[in-house]
Amino acid sequence: MKERTAELAVVSNKSFQASTAVNLHHYDISSALQTTLEFNELIAIFCNKIQATVPHNSVEYTNDEFGLSFKRGIVGRHSCSYALKVEDQQLGELKLTRTHRFGKDELAMLESLLCCLIYPLRNATLFHQALQMAYTDPLTQTHNRAGFNDMLAREIKRANRCEQHLSLIFVDIDHFKALNDEYGHDCGDMALAAVASKVKDSVRGSDVVFRYGGEEFVIMLIDTNLDAAAVIAERVRTCIESQTLAYGMEVLNITASLGVSSLRGNENMESFIKRADTAMYKAKQTGRNRVCVA
């Protein structure tokens, strides 16, 4: 039986401090939760700590702001759910399940213990919001080059460890300098934002778009081989070409050249990027508005 989702809110530091002082169990949980700013790790630590007090078979945590969905265990028939927030800040939803109903005393204990989780989740939210701002290009609302470098280093390690594919698509707007020179930088900015929007609309939800620099974008495709990446690149190219932009009384037709590469064995980051970049320049040198692979 599914229980109604409850809303757990802490409205002041005073209430949180009072809850942590209830007993040593609360103090132990609070101390453990100070060790990380990662949402999934916070939920895992919390659930491990409360297992003896509030036994459960599975946990699910969702956070729409950051697109998170953390699940662990085997889902049981009975559940209790809490929409977590502090003041007006939403912190996600936590659901526990098991085979038999949660008792009133257990739910009261769980709600008391959840107060220990609220502020670590708030700190994690503030931290990741700051990261998002630091890693976002304000003009195109894509991730920036710093974000690309950090994420690519992590994904290369993960791909090698898990023996999965990893691909890159470099996208460069054709004749962008001429567009800027003829119509001005405001027009160039509009074109960049429009192309970025088209690229984001034409890739999958698991793909990540970055502004690499100037008029150049890069798409990271996790667990995607070279053939599949080339198909996606062609779809991106077609979407950009099909877009007609109006600037003042002028109608602008934008195209782009794309280069695709997939990670090879234990290849390093520099080599991986260079091959995609080289493929993109080959597309430009052989006529533009096309896809080349390397």
TrEMBL record:
EC number: 2.7.7.65
Entry-linked SUPFAM superfamilies: Nucleotide cyclase
Catalytic activity: 2 GTP = 3',3'-c-di-GMP + 2 diphosphate
Domain of life of the organism encoding this protein: Bacteria
Sequence ranges assigned to domain GGDEF in this UniProt record: 164-294
CDD domains: GGDEF
Pfam families in UniProt: GGDEF (PF00990)
PANTHER family on file: DIGUANYLATE CYCLASE DGCM-RELATED, REGULATORY COMPONENTS OF SENSORY TRANSDUCTION SYSTEM
NCBIfam families from the UniProt entry: GGDEF
Name under which the protein is recorded: diguanylate cyclase
